[in-house]
Amino acid sequence: MNDSKEFEEEYADLGATTQNAMDIAETSMDIVRQFVPDETLADRIRQKSVHSMGDIEFQHLIEFTGSDELGDDEDAPVRAGARAVLDETTIVTDITMSKAGITGRGHNCEKRKAIGNGAELAKETGMTRTAASVLELDKQGVYDGAIATIGNAPTAAFALADCIEDGTRPAAIVATPVGFVKAEESRQRIREVSEEYDVPAITNVGRRGGSGLAAALTNELIHVAKDVRTDEIDLELDAETRAADGRNR
Predict the structure, then answer these.
(1) Are 92 and 147 in contact, with CB atoms under 8 Å apart?
(2) What pLDDT sits at residue 29?
(3) Cα–Cα distances in Å, from 27 out to 21, 131, 226?
(4) Which of 193, 126, 128 is nearest to 166 (CA)?
(5) Got the DSSP string for 127-140?
(6) What 3-state DSSP class applies to 160?
(7) Rounded to whole angstroms, what are the CA distances from 204 to 48, 58, 59?
(8) Residue 189 and residue 158: Cα distance in Å, rounded?
(9) Quick check: 203 and 218 in contact, CB under 8 A?
């Protein structure tokens, strides 16, 4: 496993790897922080959503549900996701694009995509390939303890919700499937099972979303984990305490 110094050197926020790119990235996030609070871990997710979507108002569309050992405050899904990264869990995306957008730096997690599995099930039942892929990987136990990232396919979100009802427990979920057909409903379904079964989840409301957003929010979980590893963040604080102490960063 890489030590803290090596992780710090090899990981750059927003994927920047040169000094010029890092300067641009930091300037961009400084601008975002003028419009988005910077008090809690959830605020960091809101900031990343604004940066990813290029829309200041998008911060108000992010939802945090579920709980961890510290409680059900808005930071719970971020803490759970960061812990999962530190535990080197698997990150499972719905499609190739979501997987491609997740950084390979700053963590030792395996990245997998669901699409490409479950072809026979899709053929037999007529369900979408992404839904069948989620069900196939769930049979293999892939989603238990994993970070489940869904950026494109509403049917993948519906399938994952069914799996959770049947006993599957991801460490954390990032679900931002995009579109006009059942996308909003699929995210609402994720929120419902997240609340009922205490599975930490980050979602958004409305029709917008997509693989880029899902990858960006997952990358922020990785960034939070990096900050824990380098002692910049104490993960054992709830959102209220963090905001009061000013210890987001």
Answers:
(1) yes
(2) 84
(3) 10, 40, 20
(4) 193
(5) --HHHHHHHHHHHT
(6) helix
(7) 13, 9, 9
(8) 7
(9) no
Report how far residue 192's alpha carbon sits from residue 232's, in angstroms, rounded to the nearest whole number.
33
Neighbours of 28 (CB within 10 A): 14
**Contact present, 221 and 89 (Cβ < 8 Å):** no
What would the two tokens of residue 193 be?
């099972």
CB 197 within 8 A of CB 168: no
**Crossing angle of helices 129-139 and 154-165, rounded to 10°:** 30
Q: Which pairing describes strands 62-65 and 201-204: parallel, antiparallel, or unpaired?
A: antiparallel
140-152 core/surface letters (b: 16 or more CB in 10 A; e: else): eebbeebbbbbbb
- Cα dist from 143 to 98, 139, 148, 149, whole Å: 16, 9, 7, 10
Q: How far apart are CA 191 and CA 125, in angstroms?
A: 26
Indicate whether this model's pTM tops 0.70.
yes
Neighbours of 89 (CB within 10 A): 21
Mean pLDDT (10-residue bins), the chain, 249 residues: 45 61 78 91 96 93 96 97 97 94 92 88 87 95 97 96 97 95 95 97 95 96 94 91 76
Residue 203 in tokens:
């979602």
The secondary structure of 88-125 as a DSSP string is TPPEEESSHHHHHHS-SSS----EEESBTB-HHHHHHH
* Token pair belonging to 156: 């993948």
